[in-house]
Write a structure and sequence with these properties.
alpha+beta; 4-stranded mixed sheet; 19 helices; globular
C-alpha cells in the first residue's frame, strides 16, 4: 500500500538537526525504534494467534459449523492474507455477500442492534412474521442476480449536548442486512491496515482504549495537546476520493458499485422532501451500518501520515489518538508548522477543521475534554506536594445522564416498580460502564453525585399523589428499589479511598 505523505528524512539527517537546546537527543530516536520493535512483535503474536484459530475452525466439517463460525473463519483468512501481504488487492469478494451463512449472521447482528424501521416501515417483528428465511433468501437472490437496489434512507435529527442537532440516517432492515454482510467481509481486510491509534467503531476497541492511551501519553510527558474538531465529517466525505482509498485493497468492481449505490441512495427528510440521490457527491449517512467502516477507511489516510514511523510527526514526537472523527495530537511540544501541515492534509482530503472549536492547550496548565472525559492535572490531598492526572466524567456528561433519568421517569409515571427499574438500569449501567475505566479514570465523586441524585429524584417520584397505590409511596423508595427490585446503585464505597481526596489546583 502507498504510504502517507509527510516530510521524509533519514535517521542521520534527523540526528544532525537535533540539538540539546531543543531537548531532543538520540534517546528520542531509540524510544521510537523500541516502540516499532514492540509493535512488530505484537503483530507477529497476533498473526500466530489468528493462524491457530484458523487451524482450530478448519478441523470442523462445514455441516458441523454454525453461521457465526463459518463467517468467523472467512474473516480470519481475509485478515491474515491482508496482514501478510500489505499491497494485496482482493478481486473476488462479492460472491461472499449472498452466502446463506453470511446473510444469516448479518441479520442476527442487525436484529441484536434493534433500531427503528426505515422508509418502508418494516420492523424485525414484521420480518419474523413474513418469514426470516424467506426474507433472507429473497435478498440473497437479489444480490446474486445484481438486481438489488437500496431503498431511500429516512433522516431524523438527534439533539446534541451543545443544543444543536445532528442528522441520523436510518436505512430499511433489508438494506441494513445487505450493508452488514458487506461490512463483515470488508472489515477484516481493513483491520489489517488500520493504525493502532484508531479506536472508534472497530472490533475489540472502545473509547476506554483511547482514554487509556491519552493518559499514558500524559504520564510520559506529552502535555501539549491539540484538540481538533472536524466540521460535519460524515456529511463531507468526498465519494470520489473515498473510492480511491477503497481501491487500495478492494478490486472487486461489484463491491465498489454496491457501496456507490448506498452512498447515493436518496434521503427522505422529516418534512417528506427528498435530498441526495445520484447527483450527490459527498457524505455517508450516520446511522448506516457500513458508514463507520467507510469513515475509518478514509480517515486512515490521515492516520498513516501522522503516525508513520520516522515521518515528520513521528520525528516531532507527535502522536495522534482518534475515535471516528474525533482526534487529538499529543506531544511534548506541538509547533505551528505541525498544525498547519495537518490543516493542509485535511484540506487536500476535502475535509475542514472547525478552527473555532479546535484548540491547543498545555494540559499541565489547563484541562481539556475528549470523548466525554475531562483530563486535569490535579493536586492530591493524599500525598502532599504531589500531582496526578485526573481523568473523570466531564460536567456536561454528568448533567446529561441526570437529564436522561429525569426524562425517563416523566415518561413512566404510572409504571410498577419492576418496570421503573427495567427502564432505569440500562441508563445507569451504560453510563457507569463507559466512564469507569480500571486504573485509568477516577469516578468516585461523579458516581456518588449520581447516586445522591437518584436517591432524591426517586424518593420525590414516589411521594406524588399519583403513587399512593404503590408499595413505595411515602417510603425510602431508592433504597427499597435497590434491595428488592434490583436497581443498580452507581456508587459503592470500597473503603480504600475517601471520595473527597481529590481537589483542583
Amino acid at each position: 500500500m502507498a504510504e502517507g505523505g509527510g516530510d521524509v528524512r533519514s535517521t542521520e539527517d534527523v540526528r544532525d538537526n537535533i540539538t540539546r537546546t531543543e531537548g531532543r537527543d538520540i534517546t528520542t530516536m531509540n524510544v521510537s525504534d523500541n516502540d516499532q520493535t514492540t509493535e512488530l512483535m505484537k503483530e507477529s503474536s497476533i498473526q500466530q494467534s489468528v493462524q491457530r484459530e484458523i487451524d482450530r475452525l478448519s478441523q470442523k466439517k462445514r455441516k458441523e459449523m454454525d453461521a457465526r463460525e463459518r463467517v468467523r473463519l472467512l474473516q480470519l483468512k481475509l485478515y491474515l492474507k491482508a496482514k501478510q501481504e500489505k499491497s494485496y488487492k482482493f478481486y473476488i469478494l462479492y460472491d461472499k455477500l449472498f452466502l446463506k451463512h453470511t446473510l444469516t449472521e448479518a441479520y442476527a447482528k442487525c436484529k441484536a442492534n434493534a433500531g427503528s424501521p426505515g422508509t418502508d416501515g418494516m420492523t424485525f417483528k414484521d420480518v419474523e412474521e413474513y418469514g426470516r428465511r424467506k426474507f433472507l433468501d429473497e435478498l440473497g437472490e437479489e444480490l446474486r442476480k445484481r438486481t438489488y437496489k437500496p431503498q431511500p434512507v429516512k433522516r431524523v435529527w438527534i439533539e446534541k449536548e451543545n443544543g444543536g442537532k445532528r442528522p441520523l440516517g436510518i436505512p430499511t432492515i433489508k438494506d441494513r442486512v445487505a450493508q452488514q454482510a458487506c461490512k463483515m467481509v470488508m472489515e477484516p481486510i481493513w483491520e489489517a491496515d488500520f493504525d493502532g491509534s484508531s479506536h472508534g467503531f472497530r472490533p475489540k476497541r472502545s473509547a476506554a482504549d483511547a482514554v487509556t492511551e491519552i493518559k499514558q501519553n500524559l504520564k510520559s510527558g506529552k502535555h501539549d495537546v491539540y484538540d481538533a474538531d472536524l466540521s460535519k465529517y460524515f456529511d463531507t466525505i468526498p465519494h470520489e476520493k473515498l473510492e480511491l482509498a477503497l481501491k487500495e485493497r478492494i478490486a472487486d468492481p461489484r463491491v465498489l458499485y454496491l457501496i456507490k449505490l448506498w452512498l447515493k441512495a436518496p434521503i427522505v427528510e422529516e418534512d417528506g422532501g427528498y435530498t441526495g440521490g445520484k447527483s450527490n457527491k459527498q457524505g455517508t449517512p450516520q446511522g448506516g451500518v457500513i458508514s463507520p467502516l467507510l469513515a475509518n477507511v478514509y480517515m486512515n489516510l490521515l492516520d498513516r501520515i501522522v503516525n508513520r514511523p520516522n515521518g515528520y510527526y513521528d520525528q516531532q514526537g507527535i502522536r495522534m489518538i482518534r475515535y471516528a472523527d474525533d482526534f487529538i495530537l499529543m506531544s511534548k511540544h506541538i509547533g505551528q508548522e505541525a498544525i498547519i501541515r495537518l490543516h493542509n492534509y485535511l484540506e487536500r482530503m476535502g475535509l475542514v477543521i472547525n478552527t473555532k472549536k479546535s484548540k491547543q492547550v498545555n494540559a499541565r496548565e489547563a484541562p481539556f475534554e475528549f470523548l466525554g472525559f475531562a483530563f486535569r492535572y490535579d493536586r492530591s490531598v493524599l500525598f502532599e506536594g504531589s500531582r496526578f492526572w485526573n481523568v473523570l466524567p466531564r460536567p456536561k456528561s454528568q448533567k446529561k445522564v441526570r437529564q436522561k433519568v429525569n426524562t425517563r421517569l416523566k415518561s413512566i409515571s404510572h409504571y410498577p416498580a419492576e418496570a421503573v427499574v427495567a427502564e432505569l438500569n440500562p441508563v445507569i449501567r451504560g453510563w457507569v460502564n463507559y466512564y469507569r475505566i480500571d486504573k485509568v479514570s477516577y469516578t468516585q465523586v461523579a458516581l456518588r453525585t449520581l447516586n445522591d441524585y437518584l436517591r432524591k429524584r426517586l424518593d420525590r417520584f414516589y411521594q406524588r399523589k399519583s403513587q399512593r397505590k404503590s408499595r413505595l409511596y411515602g417510603q425510602e423508595a431508592y433504597q427499597l428499589l435497590i434491595q428488592h427490585y434490583g436497581l443498580i446503585a452507581p456508587y459503592k464505597t470500597s473503603g480504600t479511598r475517601p471520595v473527597k481526596a481529590l481537589r483542583r489546583k
